[in-house]
């Protein structure tokens, strides 16, 4: 893995935009805050730059990356919008919705970004990412800024811990607001397929479009989004829908009431006392890593309802609890 003398960390702001732009135009990577999680960004039109993302993440290269844009107009330079996808972009961008769209003839996106597919995942982020892309004037490819198989980072410190010195520049924008990755959908024959639940609740998309999402999962030729079973794995084992805390376990709680045995837990963190799934999503990865650091061999997780962002939270928890590939 490449190491730089020292990873530079800059607070988000106009100086950071200029510094990040210089590094990116030089074909190197920068870890940046978005409203969902931190991304490891590179110029999406530069193959060598994109390759550096895979190098830092130690990610299997068959997993395609999201292209981040400033607006619909920039997305249209390389992707084709059907009317329904356009409506979704107009309503939810900038924001935590990623659209999978056909690539446009003659586009400048490097094939490493799309893993050679004829489609591309696109979203317009909020905050620092948006400012940076605006300044760059071109799309940035960026997966979450963690080593492959680790929890997605919601703070600059988590990026530093996950990627070590393998990235030259990290922009610190504090804790991210949404806390889970974007929702990914793909419109096919007028139907909206949910490829990954995320920061925009599926119900919200159903309300805006007046149609139900197809949750049957991906039939695409690629590994379905985020499907590597160890993708969100902490070091500790995870036990979901726990009804009791076992000796040696830490507890990830939800709501006002604690399950029996909570008083003997190694550590307790409550995602949302009031049972708010938006608040819970924002804290999820941070609390998982903090409980992991408590040294518990297992993290017991109280049941979390499937409403609102509960679907995305349960999806990430199920992946974290899935059998490890080692
Ligand atoms: O919130 C987010 O989405 C964050 C921030 C940084 O934007 N990014 C993120 O990227 O989560 P990443 O690379 O960790 O996840 C992107 C997912 C992958 O699971 C990949 O399989 C899927 O998007 N994907 C990318 N291109 C695709 C395509 N053409 N068709 C289907 N899925 C695709
Ligand atoms: Mg990721």
From TrEMBL:
Subcellular location: Cytoplasm
Keywords: ATP-binding, Cytoplasm, Nucleotide-binding, Nucleotidyltransferase, Transferase, tRNA processing
A Pfam family recorded for this sequence: Sua5_yciO_yrdC
Signal sequence range: none
Database matches in InterPro entries: DHBP_synth_RibB-like_a/b_dom, Sua5-like_dom, Sua5/YwlC_C, Sua5_C, T(6)A37_SUA5, TC-AMP_synthase_SUA5
Residues where ATP binds: 59, 63, 144, 152, 196, 232
Residues that, per the record, bind L-threonine: 36, 68, 119, 123, 142, 182
BP GO annotations: regulation of translational fidelity; tRNA processing
Residue ranges of every copy of the YrdC-like domain listed in the record: 14-200
Purpose of the protein: Required for the formation of a threonylcarbamoyl group on adenosine at position 37 (t(6)A37) in tRNAs that read codons beginning with adenine.
Family named by the database record: Belongs to the SUA5 family.
PANTHER family: SUA5, THREONYLCARBAMOYL-AMP SYNTHASE
NCBIfam families documented for this protein: L-threonylcarbamoyladenylate synthase
Protein's name in the database: Threonylcarbamoyl-AMP synthase
């Amino acid at each position: 893995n490449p190491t730089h003398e020292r990873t530079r960390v800059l607070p988000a702001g106009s100086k950071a935009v200029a510094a990040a732009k210089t590094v990116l135009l030089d074909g190197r990577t920068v870890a940046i805050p978005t409203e969902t999680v931190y991304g490891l960004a590179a110029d999406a039109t530069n193959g060598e730059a994109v390759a550096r993302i895979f190098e830092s993440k130690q990610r299997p290269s068959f997993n395609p990356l999201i292209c981040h844009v400033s607006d619909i107009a920039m997305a249209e330079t390389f992707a084709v919008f059907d009317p329904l996808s356009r409506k979704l972009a107009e309503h939810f961008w900038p924001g935590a919705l990623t659209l999978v769209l056909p690539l446009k003839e003659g586009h400048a996106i490097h094939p490493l970004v799309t893993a050679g597919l004829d489609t591309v995942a696109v979203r317009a982020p909020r905050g620092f990412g948006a400012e940076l892309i605006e300044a760059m004037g071109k799309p940035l490819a960026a997966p979450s800024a963690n080593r492959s198989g680790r929890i997605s980072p919601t703070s600059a410190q988590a990026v530093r811990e996950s990627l070590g010195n393998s990235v030259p520049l990290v922009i610190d924008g504090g804790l991210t607001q949404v806390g889970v990755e974007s929702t990914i959908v793909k419109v096919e024959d007028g139907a909206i397929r949910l490829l990954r639940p995320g920061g925009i609740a599926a119900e919200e998309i159903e309300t805006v479009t007046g149609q139900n999402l197809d949750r049957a999962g991906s039939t695409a030729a690629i590994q379905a989004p985020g499907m590597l079973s160890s993708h969100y794995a902490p070091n500790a084992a995870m036990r979901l829908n726990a009804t009791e805390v076992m000796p040696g376990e830490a507890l990830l709680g939800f709501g006002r009431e604690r399950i029996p045995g909570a008083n003997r837990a190694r550590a307790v963190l409550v995602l949302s006392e009031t049972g708010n799934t938006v608040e819970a999503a924002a804290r999820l990865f941070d609390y998982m890593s903090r409980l992991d650091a408590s040294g518990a061999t297992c993290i017991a997780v109280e049941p979390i309802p499937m409403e609102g962002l509960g679907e995305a939270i349960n999806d990430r928890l199920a992946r974290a609890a899935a059998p490890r590939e080692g």
